Records
---
Amino acid sequence: MVEFTPLSGAVGGFVIGLAAVLFMAVNGRVAGISGILAGVLTPVRGDWAWRAAFMAGLFAAPLAFWLATSEKPQVVFDHPLWLVALGGVLVGFGARLGGGCTSGHGVCGMARLSRRSIAATATFMATAMISVFVLHHLAGF
């Protein structure tokens, strides 16, 4: 079981929110990971470099943490790796189907009071709750 750490969660949430606001203020764009990744995989001329830099930053952050603290970030899977991978594929499919991802809708869209993002966030949160209930209480994972 993963330890509940509200302080680090609150700090992480604040940093994500601050980064999303700064990204919007500086670039005029929403920090939606699925859209940014899609732009890296299907590049548009003059639009690829900032997207690649953003994605590289997602990998550089844990490395910077490791170098700064000498503490290797731990990745713990409470479920079989195949189930985690399947969940990732389904989230990716849902992100493309819904025209955005949890970060784009949940962090950026909700902050802008976008009706579409509020509906999308309510949908994926309800789906997540149902999935956790089914996996933990009915399927035995």
---
Amino acid sequence: MANLEETFVGLPGWGKALALVGVLALLGGGYYSLVYGSISSDLTSADEKQKQLQDEIRDAERREKQYLDLTQELANREIADRQNRRILPENAEIAAFLQDLNRVAELSGLTIRLVEPRPEVRQELYSKIPVVLALTGRFHQMGKFFYNVSKLDRAISLENIRMTQPKLLPSGEMIIDVDVRATTYRRPSPKPPKKSKKSKRK
């Protein structure tokens, strides 16, 4: 150490300056390699992890959107299926059908003189369930009845409408008798799967 100090002291000014520059360069190189290099490596690693996390977040958001879309689509299909089952149920549900007709007739102010269910008529894609009705009431009450029937959830068609000659009551009111066939529909029952025939043993 003493020899180094003596050597340094004996150097001219420009030599001391070069020595100091060399020492500072060594210190700077050491600092860069030990400190800055380590920090730079950590920053690069952190940046890569951040990009990976961002990719994972985007993927998770995409999956969440797909899940929400599928859930909404399933809910819409369930709602549509319930509506379709009300419009075209699998069972005849004659009692409920007659109850709806009777309720609508009463709300319309009509008198039901006859309710006569007819045999079910099987079609290729659906079955028809007709009921013959004989109604009595004023003209605007008949119109109200037909309108309210069209607003029921179940599919119903009113056919073969026959109207009698209007009758004038002593009170001045005019009433009519109407015969009509109210037909509702149901979807066919699913066919049971065919049983496979077992091969006969020879």
---
Amino acid sequence: MKTDTRYEIDIFKLRNGQHTYNFDVNDAFFEAFENSPVKKGNGRVEVILEKEERMIQVDMHLSLTIPLECDKTLKPFDYQVEENKEIMYKYGESEEELDEDLYMITRNTQRIDLTHLIYEYVCMAIPMRKIHPDHLDESEEDELIYRSEGSGDQEDDGDDSVDPRWSKLKDLNN
């Protein structure tokens, strides 16, 4: 990933209290990540940062549109990402990730870089099954995806013949 300072917040000289930041996210943002499941996207990220003596709370609202391809029809469509995330930064002895949304930083930390967090939240917002909005209402219960020759609904002819190779396994139980 290339270094991009546009998504960093200088916290060292920041006064205690609430501060609001707006970041534009575009195709260039996602191009910086190699092998990314998201190649393009556009939108905004609003960050409300609350700085206190012992911690920093970051409320992040992501509002982006990313192009996806339907798993069913392979038609492209725009997917709307609307996410609200809360991240906590606590002051401590070293810099480390304590939990998914809890980080420890030192008092000498100059900046908070939100680049990777924004990227992760967008990637996690992508659904496992990407279905075009035109096909969301279709029932998949009766849908036949694949059938090989001879695997149709064959009537049971009452013949319970077993392959002789498998009949030898029955003898093992006795």
